[in-house]
Amino acid sequence: MARHGLKIETAAISVRCHRDTCMKTYKGSCHCRAVRFEADIDMSAGTHKCNCSICVKTRHWVVINKPSAFRLLCGETELSDYQFGSKVEHHLFCRHCGVRSFQRVYIEQLGGGRVAVQISALDDVDPKELITAPIRYVDGRNNEWGEVPEETRHL
Hints:
It is a single chain. By secondary structure, this protein is mainly β. It is 8% helix and 41% strand. The strands form three sheets. Strands 1-2-3-4-7 form a five-stranded antiparallel beta sheet, with no helix packed on it. Strands 6-11-10-9-8 form a five-stranded antiparallel beta sheet, with no helix packed on it. The radius of gyration is 16 Å and the shape is globular. The N terminus is likely disordered.
């Protein structure tokens, strides 16, 4: 499949490819579906796992997007927010079922505001896409965000 200016749309998916990127629109939600969203994601661009305290406890696996590539369809009022430490991340979760579907973050090194979409909250992702998606590991435990932790097998 050529990746230059190709656009494919069906009732279920929308895929836009240009040069080396191929954005697919995914639908996602919390468990009870009170919070629902759409996100334009290029899985081949990579996903992220971190070893900091909250990421290890919540099995954090995300794709980091620009806010313009994320659309909250419903449930803003159903979200609770947890912050700690430097409070640059809003760890949002459904107040009914407790599922964390996405985070709002501000990371200067990434250009400011971002949305970190939880891979586990995507409703229509094919497991084959996850198997082939690159994973970037970051050492949040030691605040070495540009470094890979010594051990990643448990993440």
